[in-house]
Design brief:
The protein has one domain: Glycosyltransferase (Alpha/alpha barrel), CATH 1.50.10.10. It has 12 helices and 8 strands. Strands 1-2 form a two-stranded antiparallel sheet. It has a two-stranded antiparallel ribbon with strand order 3-4. Strands 5-6 form a two-stranded antiparallel ribbon. Strand 1 and strand 2 form a beta hairpin. The longest helix has 28 residues. The protein is globular.
C-alpha cells in the first residue's frame, strides 16, 4: 500500500510540471550548436552503453520536438533547425526530399527516402510561423512541398519509399503507399497552401486516394499487395495529420484493433511480433523483442483526449509515468531487467509535452 501511494505521489508530481520542465530540457539538449536537432543526446554520461547511438538527425523526430517546444512556449531553437535543413542537409536544395537520417554536419547517413518527413517538417514550419514565413523559410517550405509533388503519381509514389519505422518499403510497381506517409504529405501540403494554391488541390486529390484505399478500415500499406497489419502509428491520421475526425467510425475501429492486438499490460507496441529493441552488440542489431513505446502511449492518450475520453487517456499516460526513472522517458519500456531502451529519447519527451499541452487546452475549454 505504501509503495502504491508513493507511486501515485510521484505520478502526481510529474503531472504538476516537473516532467514537463525536464522534457523541455531534454528537447533543448537535442539541439546542437549548428542548428541540428538529434534524436537523442548520446553524449550524456549515463546514456545506456549498449543502446544504439541516436545522435543523428531524423527530421521527423526533430519536427515533433519543434512543435512540442513551441506549444510549451519554447521558441529558441526551431528556426536554427529549419536553417540547418536548408543549408546543411545533403540534397535538400537539389531535390527537396528528406531521407532517413543525417549526420550532425549534414551528410546523409542512410539513403532511404522517408517522404513522411517532408510533411512533418512542413507541419512544424507552419506551427512555428503561422504563415508569416521569412524568405529563407519560404524557400525551404516550397522545396519540401515541391519534393512531395515530384514523387507522387496517379495514386502512389513513383519511387521507392520507406515507412517511418524504417523497416518496410512501398514499391511503385505494386502501386503501394504507406498510409502514414501519405497522410503526413497531405498535412504538409495543406500547411504550405498559402505559398501556392496548387498544393491544396494536390492534397485534396491525395486524400481522396487515401480514403478510397482505406474505406473498409485504416491499414498500413494499400496497393496491389496490401499490408493490413495493425500499426499504432496510424493514430497519426487523427493527430496531427487530421485526415479523420476523432469520432469517425474508422477511428473507433482503429483504436479497438490497437487495444486488442498491440496493448500488453497497458503499454502499446508498434505492431505484432516487433523484434527491434534498440540494442546493438557485435555490430549487429540484437532484435531480442520490442517493448512498449512511450511515444505511442502518449499518442493514444492525445487522441483519446481529443475524443473527450480523458480518463482513458490518463490511464495510457500513467502507464509510462509510473515506470520511468529520473524524469527520463526512453524509446521503449521492457518488462525485464536485461533490455534497456535508448534514454532519454527526444521524441518520447516531445509526445509527453504534446499530450500535456493538449490536455491543458481540453481542461480550459
Amino acid at each position: 500500500m505504501a509503495d502504491k501511494r508513493r507511486d501515485e505521489a510521484e505520478t502526481a508530481a510529474r503531472n504538476n510540471g516537473g516532467l514537463l520542465n525536464a522534457s523541455l530540457r531534454v528537447i533543448r539538449g537535442c539541439a546542437v550548436k549548428n542548428g541540428a536537432v538529434v534524436a537523442a543526446d548520446s553524449d550524456l554520461p549515463d546514456y545506456p552503453r549498449q543502446a544504439q547511438d541516436y545522435r543523428y538527425v531524423w527530421p521527423r523526430d526533430a519536427s515533433f520536438m519543434c512543435v512540442a517546444a513551441n506549444r510549451a512556449g519554447v521558441r529558441d531553437f526551431q528556426e536554427g533547425f529549419f536553417h540547418w535543413l536548408l543549408d546543411r542537409a545533403e540534397g535538400v536544395r537539389e531535390s527537396g526530399l528528406l531521407f532517413q537520417n543525417y549526420h550532425v554536419n549534414g551528410p546523409k547517413r542512410w539513403l532511404a527516402l522517408q517522404i513522411d518527413q517532408n510533411g512533418s517538417v512542413l507541419w512544424a514550419i507552419e506551427d512555428f510561423y503561422r504563415g508569416d514565413y521569412p524568405v529563407k523559410i519560404r524557400d525551404l517550405a516550397k522545396l519540401l512541398a515541391d519534393g512531395i509533388v515530384s514523387v507522387w503519381g496517379e495514386g502512389f509514389f513513383t519511387t521507392l519509399t520507406q515507412d517511418l519505422w524504417e523497416e518496410r518499403y512501398a514499391y511503385p510497381e505494386l502501386e503501394q503507399f504507406h498510409t502514414y506517409s501519405l497522410a503526413a504529405c497531405i498535412k504538409g501540403l495543406r500547411c504550405a497552401a498559402s505559398l501556392d494554391s496548387t498544393y491544396a488541390k494536390q492534397a485534396a486529390a491525395m486524400e481522396r486516394v487515401l480514403k478510397k484505399a482505406n474505406r473498409k478500415g485504416i491499414i498500413r500499406t494499400p496497393g496491389r499487395l496490401r499490408d493490413e497489419t495493425c500499426d499504432a502509428s496510424l493514430l497519426g491520421l487523427v493527430w496531427p495529420f487530421e485526415i479523420y475526425e476523432p469520432d469517425d467510425p474508422l477511428v473507433d475501429r482503429l483504436i479497438g484493433d490497437i487495444e486488442r492486438s498491440l496493448v500488453k499490460g497497458g503499454g502499446i507496441h508498434r505492431y505484432r511480433f516487433d523484434a527491434y529493441d534498440g540494442h546493438r552488440r557485435h555490430g549487429i542489431d540484437s532484435r531480442r523483442g520490442g517493448g512498449a513505446w512511450p511515444v505511442l502511449n502518449f499518442w493514444m492518450a492525445l487522441v483519446l483526449s481529443l475524443r473527450g475520453e480523458r480518463d482513458e487517456a490518463r490511464i495510457y499516460a500513467d502507464y509510462v509515468l509510473k515506470r520511468i526513472q529520473a524524469d527520463r522517458i526512453p524509446e521503449q519500456l521492457f518488462s525485464n531487467r536485461i533490455q534497456e531502451g535508448i534514454s532519454p529519447l527526444g521524441w518520447s519527451h516531445a509526445m509527453y509535452v504534446l499530450y500535456r499541452t493538449q490536455d491543458a487546452r481540453e481542461k480550459s475549454d
